[in-house]
């Protein structure tokens, strides 16, 4: 069931940030920090689970299962990356139904050909705008909760059709019934501000570290006019760097207990071991 928090936050008009979640370790750490919305990122959930690139290789069923696990693990509502809807109109209908049943609060759909590519990598190919308009209409019709389950429409047209071409697509997607608009990989803060000024519906920013777009401070994004920003790669790249540093120290210096480790006892608590221990106290062989 979709949660109301996403629509409520958009309606408030107050800018907010949403971290990307690549695995369930990141999910429980985000629980600790305290977020009411998280982003189920296709790129990083794919990389963490299967060690594969975000290139349309992972199936709908595999990704739906990952989103369902994230919903169960996270205290926050989940905005889910739905790629292209995994095919044509019937696939979009099935994907929206499945994601909503999995418990996510919003689905993001993009106008690339299937199989898709990451929005900050080359060789992306787009479907005609008319096809994407139909996908948005199908997605909006397929959802059970018309009020709270939101449709995010993304265009990857900036690099192939230019800024104006991307804006024409976004205008068509807005008219088709998208709740949130997402022009991917804009190339400057000036483009971002112009895009936000053109439309009445909420605009989403993708702050992909190392990608095509600049990553200004959240306060700047707020002034530009975005409703919110996702940070899909932040926890993944931070974790990868920390792991590389620790492994190099182990290999080269024999350091197996470096400074700065997350507390093992606290992580046991975050991941649910206290419930396991309570069960053992009640039902274990040594229980009195």
What does this protein look like?
This protein is an alpha/beta fold. It folds into 2 domains: 5-239, TIM Barrel (Alpha-Beta Barrel); 258-288, no CATH class. Helices cover 50% and strands 13% of the residues. The protein is built from 12 helices and 8 strands. The protein has helices spanning 5-12, 24-33, 42-50, 60-73, 89-102, 129-142, 158-176, 189-198, 218-224, 234-253, 264-271, 273-283; strands at residues 16-21, 37-40, 77-81, 106-110, 150-155, 180-183, 204-206, 228-231. Strands 6-5-4-3-2-1-8-7 form an 8-stranded parallel sheet, sandwiched between helices. β7 (204-206), α9 and β8 form a beta-alpha-beta unit. α5 runs parallel beside α6 (129-142) and α6 crosses α7 (158-176). The longest helix has 20 residues, at 234-253. The N and C termini lie far apart (41 Å). The relative contact order is 0.13. It holds the Pfam family PEP_mutase. Keywords: Lyase. GO terms for molecular function: oxo-acid-lyase activity.
